[in-house]
């Protein structure tokens, strides 16, 4: 789990990260982006999340012509935990919030052994 959190400071993760027995869940605020604006990839144990949104608008009032453009870009990456099931990672965009669920691989669970002190 610590590897998952290495790239994010605790203040940025408040109420955005949740660990359960079967998975990790992370929420990302991405206002103005739709699911079509977001691309998620996994490469060499890293999860990359990129989003880009361009909006151009033109119009005219009376004898005046106007145009407006907005642009938004989102780019972050996380090191995945060792017990992540990479092939089963899922994501959903809802109301400007990206929900990423990273299932845990039970076969890669850490073995903890108590050592007797003599």
Please explain how this structure is put together.
The protein has 118 residues and is mainly β. It has a domain at 33-55 and 67-108: Immunoglobulin-like, CATH 2.60.40. 7% of the residues lie in helices and 51% in strands. It is built from two helices and seven strands; from the N terminus they run ααβββββββ. The strands form two sheets. Strands 1-2-7-6 form a four-stranded antiparallel β-sheet, with no helix packed on it. Strands 3-4-5 form a three-stranded antiparallel β-sheet. The longest helix is centred in the first third of the chain and has 4 residues, at 2-5. It starts with a helix and ends in a 15-residue tail after the last strand. The model is unreliable at 1-11 (pLDDT under 50).
SSE topology:
Elements: H1 2-5, H2 10-13, E1 17-19, E2 23-29, E3 38-43, E4 46-61, E5 64-79, E6 90-94, E7 97-103
Antiparallel strand pairs: 1-2, 2-7, 3-4, 4-5, 6-7
Number of E strands: 7
N-to-C CA distance: 32 Å
Please state roughly what percent of the residues sit in beta strands, choosing from under 5%, 5-15%, 15-25%, 25-35%, 35-45% or over 45%.
over 45%
The value of Rg in angstroms is: 20 Å
Low-confidence stretches: 1-11
| CATH fold node name of the domain at 33-55 and 67-108 | Immunoglobulin-like
CATH level-1 class of the domain at 33-55 and 67-108: Mainly Beta
Q: Biggest sheet: strands side by side, in what order?
A: 1-2-7-6
What structural class do you assign from the helix and strand content?
A: mainly beta
Q: Which percent bin holds the helix content?
A: under 10%
Order of helices and strands: HHEEEEEEE
Count every helix, treating DSSP H or I runs of 4 or more residues as helices. Answer: 2
Strand count, sense and barrel status of the largest sheet are:
4 strands, antiparallel
User: What sort of overall outline do the alpha carbons produce when their principal axes are compared?
Assistant: rod-shaped
CATH architecture of the domain at 33-55 and 67-108: Sandwich
Mean pLDDT: 83
């Amino acid at each position: 789990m610590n590897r998952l959190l290495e790239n994010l400071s605790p203040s940025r993760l408040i109420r955005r990260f949740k660990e359960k027995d079967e998975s990790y869940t992370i929420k990302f605020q991405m206002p103005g982006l739709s699911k079509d604006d977001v691309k998620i990839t996994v490469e060499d144990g890293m999860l990359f999340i990129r989003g880009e949104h361009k909006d151009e608008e033109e119009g005219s009032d009376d004898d005046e012509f106007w145009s407006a453009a907005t642009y938004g870009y989102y780019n972050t990456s996380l090191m995945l935990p060792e017990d992540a099931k990479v092939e089963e990672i899922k994501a959903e965009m809802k109301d400007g919030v990206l929900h990423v669920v990273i299932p845990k691989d039970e076969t890669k669970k850490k073995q903890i052994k108590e050592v007797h002190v003599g």
